[in-house]
Amino acid sequence: MAEGPDLAESPDGPLDEELVLVFEVSDAEAGERVDVALATLSGLPRSAVKRWIAAKRVEVNEQPCRASRRVSLGDRVRARPPEPVQPSLAPEAIPLVVLYEDSDLIVIDKPAGLVVHPAPGHPSGTLVNALLHHCNDLAGVGGVLRPGIVHRLDRGTSGVMLAAKNDTAHAALSKQFRDHSIERVYRAVVRGSPGVEEGVVDRPIGRHPRDRKRMSVAARNGRRAVTRYRLVERFAASDRSELEMHPETGRTHQIRVHLASLGLPIVGDPVYGKVRRAEIDRPALHAAKLGFVHPRSGEMLRFEAGLPDDMAALIEKLRARETAS
Q1: For 177, how many CA atoms within 13 A lie in the half-sphere containing its CB?
Q2: Looking at residues 109-124, what average pLDDT do you find?
Q3: Terminal CA-to-CA distance of the chain, rounded, Å?
Q4: What's the pLDDT tens digit per position in 58-80?
Q5: Contact at 8 Å (CB) between 157 and 252?
Q6: What's the whole-number mean pLDDT along residues 227-255?
């Protein structure tokens, strides 16, 4: 298993923890180029890592290296991120519901409809823009003064989300997601009813063979994906169910794809389910709980976000229909 970020010392003495990242190469990275290995270990973009290497800010076993150097099991990769530069993205005063915040990270309750990263079609008005406005103590992630998005929620998904404020926190939290040690619980309302009270979906996920904008369990080169689920409540009169999901991996659209593969598409999902009527204006999926080890203190932290109004109203309507039938 890869070692997490560690303290290191420069010839001039100890450096601040946020300024140095040290990793030990595991079996998973052995044989890779150092830029590929460091990007994997740190959770940062390979392009950023290449810039660090070009600036002679990366060493392998205390020796300068080129990006093309291959690493071996047990090698120690040491990186000194550059001083952060101002981002091209503009801070925006977008309201945030903050569940927790300190000098290393911030946890928010993301509303449905908020895009996480700027992208074509969404150059502004994103969570990153909001965090840039909210956080006044960013040390910089990837050499840029910005919050580090450790994981993502789809635009239509609400709930608990985590972001890092510095490279050390980003690397440590990314490692937890990579090792699948993060505790995650989602709630969803689906069309149909499962035949069991609880179960496990273990089906690889990759790009759909014909529609590249979708993911599928029928992909030729899918990556392993595992989702545990539990029935919370049946609404027989409406042919709907509320489920609780525990994803053990973190593939794109994993819960939506896995539930659709069971014949239980999420209500309101226009991509993986047929939206027959306007029950809700987005996929009825909510990230209810998130648990992780704090990258500095080592304390186990857990956060919860209650169901948003639209999902709560949907469930109440389904219950009322049960009572009336």
Answers
A1: 21
A2: 88
A3: 55
A4: 999 999 999 999 999 999 999 98
A5: no
A6: 96
Tokens 């590249």 found at: 212
Return the C-alpha torsion angle 118, 123, 125, 126, nearest 10: 0
Residue 318 Cα to chain centre, angstroms: 31
Q: How far apart are CA 156 and CA 141, in angstroms?
A: 26
CB of 288 within 8 A of CB of 255? no
Indicate which residue of 35, 154, 167, 269 is catalytic.
154
Q: Mean pLDDT over residues 9-19, rounded?
A: 36
Helix 46-54 to helix 34-42 angle (10° resolution) is: 120
Q: How far apart are CA 130 and CA 128, in angstroms?
A: 5
Contact present, 151 and 90 (Cβ < 8 Å) = no
Strand partners, 235: 240
Domains of the chain: 9-79 (3.10.290.10), 83-176 (3.30.2350.10), 183-288+310-324 (3.30.2350.10)
Q: Helix 34-42 vs helix 167-178: angle between axes, to the nearest 10 degrees?
A: 90
In the residue annotation, 16 being an active-site residue is answered as no
Residue 53 is given by DSSP the state H
> Stretch 107-129: mean pLDDT, rounded?
89
The Cβ of residue 12 has, within 10 Å, a number of other Cβ atoms equal to 6
CA torsion 252-258-263-264 (nearest 10°) is -80
Give the model confidence (pLDDT) of 299-311 as tens digits: 999 999 999 999 9
H or E segment to which residue 59 belongs: strand 58-60
d(CA 58, CA 81): 9
Burial of 287 (0-12, 13-18, 19+ CB in 10 A): buried
**Rg for the chain (alpha carbons), in Å?**
21
Q: What is the pTM of this model?
A: 0.80
Tell me the C-alpha distance between 119 and 108, whole Å: 21
Q: Which residues contact 127 (CB under 8 A, 6 or more apart)?
A: 94, 108, 110, 114, 115, 116, 117, 149, 161, 163
